[in-house]
Fold Pyruvate, phosphate dikinase.
Amino acid sequence: MTNKYVYLFSEGNASMKNLLGGKGANLAEMTTLGIPVPQGFIVTTEACNKYYEDGRKISDEIISQIFEQLAKLEETTGKKFGDNTNPLLVSVRSGARVSMPGMMDTILNLGLNDVAVEAMAEMTKNPRFAYDSYRRFIQMFSDVVMGIEKRLFENKIDELKEKKGVEFDTDLTAEDLKELVAKFKELYKKEKGEDFPSDPKNQLIESITAVFRSWDNPRAIVYRRLNDIPGEWGTAVNVQQMVFGNKGETSGTGVAFSRNPANGDKAIYGEYLMNAQGEDVVAGIRTPLEIGKLKEQNPEIYAEFEGIVNTLEDHYKDMQDMEFTIEEGKLYFLQTRNGKRTAQAALKIAVDLVEEGMLTKEQAILKVEPKQLDTLLHPAFYTEDLKKATPIAKGLPASPGAACGKIAFTADEAKDRAALGEDVVLVRLETSPEDIEGMIAAKGILTVRGGMTSHAAVVARGMGTCCVAGCGTIKVNEEKRTIEVNGKVYTADDYISIDGTSGNVYGERIKTVTPEISGHFAIFMGWADEIRKLKVRANADSPRDAKQAVEFGAEGIGLCRTEHMFFAEDRIMAVRQMITSKDVEQRKVALAKILPMQKSDFIGIYEAMEGRPVTIRLLDPPLHEFLPTADQDIKDLAKEMGITYDELKGTVQELHEFNPMMGHRGCRLAVSYPEIAEMQARAIIEAAIEVNKSKGHNIVPEIMIPLVGEIKELKYVKDVIVATVEEVMKEKGVTLQYKVGTMIEIPRAALTADEIAKEAEFFSFGTNDLTQMTFGFSRDDAAKFLAAYYEKKIYEQDPFAKLDQTGVGSLIKIAAEKGKATRPDIHLGICGEHGGDPSSIEFCHNTGLDYVSCSPFRVPLARLAAAQAQVKQPRPL
Ligand code: PEP
Ligand code: MG
């Protein structure tokens, strides 16, 4: 049996989106509903995939199916391609499963040639319009299909205007435009070495080829990566009879939404222009009228229009975004789709649709993009100001939101200037834990190096501060205190603005606004919580972050990274002393200084969490992050420790590692220096006992051991913890429940999880390290070379942002199964950055994890993604 690659609109329906693309499936559905749609056919996404399989060539089989359907279209419309009295003209547009606005190509007025243009002039009694359409078609076809620069055509128009002594395109007469058409064809021949294709069938096949090709243009590839759209989906091509809104005062064109896309109000919202083509509305040459005016101008058409809008919304049970054209008093709908909307509007519409009885709560939950919630929690740029700005560079969208301020070059500077009331953006090559205070003080953070799990990215997300990372085109000169972008130099007195949602950097001041959270947010999130089975915890290292997490609905802390507490100015010295100590005695002196600090942190966190579960991880610092590097720091520390500068400098040099991320970190530290684990276990337990007593909670601390790869090392560290806890309980005369578990972030731990589970009461998947070690990619350097991988389509996504379900996911599945085989009630969670990514959260739900843990600002997103996963694939408790 031969495959069917081309469908008439009357042969499809809305459920065929994967095959026909979103636009095509909806055109088919509207046709079935009896809505007036200019007819046409759809070349399927499978044909697109076949085009690529066949080495970028449309096969003869597909071409003959296209011509068969074209013949049927000619029959239904009574028009013929290239006819000298009644020519058929079509538009050729892309249409993937989901809409990718502006990413792919469109060709209008296809079918025009020297014969058809005369027929059109005669039919419309408007030769100027006919020749204007023709010259636009030649221009569009040459640019989009044949890759001839648009500019060359624009030059010809300018030359002609100068020759005729006129200022505007609209001043050119029909005769002028005819002359222009001849010039355009000459230009085409010069560029291509052949005549402009006058056979419409030729034009059609070339145009369909161009749309297929545009599926793989660079901007489409980037858009797909940002929006999680797999390359294998392909695009369909819609070939649709043209109708004209510019045939005089009884014609017109417009766009409409069935509800307000900005605020969600239930009222038709739209704009139109009489005697105009679609592009006139979009290009803003003439100011369109508000849709209500159509009711006054033409009540009959408006009534029909309103009826169709309501039919479509009722039918799709969602807000629709539609294009329509009126051709000589007859209304056509050219397209409908679920409309894009702001986060505020999305929430209001979802809640309203449930209240109007159109949707169930489960259906409504699927109507809001989890990532959209981000925009409700962070400042954004003022839309009007943003429209006027042009980005000077682009980095990774590491932490969402928008920030604007003057440039600060060091963390100290950021801190000091912010204290004086200045708005600053911290610009660094990369950040290190020492920068924490400056990062807190800055409005936003911009780094030249680093990926989505670099220090800057992780910490910024945790704090909810906007961050653009890995922006390699910026040159930072710390000494001169300047940055240079594309040859332009910016100083500490200059403003920059950064957009952590898009990764864009602007060399100017753009005002920011904090969005208001409406009551619909709470109602909607309440439904998400009723539905979801996966729990949501937060990664939080301070009482401040813990409070924020609870406000956003976190049900516990899944990861408290204790090393993050050590960078405050008044602590770092003691920590460095602990690390550089030559013997146990020296180390114990340092640890004694740190114990009360740790304990007070844990008390603050327990209090903020009000009895909710808290997982605290033992120290896991790559040593290089802590070692003193500046001479003055080494001098100060040596003095504090009562040793010489040279002695300490020697130790620092000895501690240098070539690959610190695979070096002396994680539980390896506790194996070498068990007294560190002892101190931490003591602080964790003493704090819990105190808070239980003072606040009446029943805290069950969860102590987590990082970077385990072997059961014996886990057992060694666990024994140290258990002995310490027993000792503390004895001292205090209290018994306390507690748990000891481990991170699974080394492939060996995942593969031997049945063994590991003998000693671990819980597993938390540290997918940052697990991804790093499974791929063998450095977390901090991968962004640099991944760009080439995206370009060459080896990878479509950053595996540090979106879980690699095939590889890393297999390790998680293996570990979960093996862990449960040994310990059926083992508690399973994830605390890598993927815990805040919607598709990764869905994977965790489907794999049977108990919770995800993510930065506080992603908690609402995670709650929604978990509910959506449950609706899509229900799982028992
Ligand atoms: C991880 O590796 O996924 C993790 C959570 O630990 P960290 O990012 O602190 O290495
Ligand atoms: Mg880790």
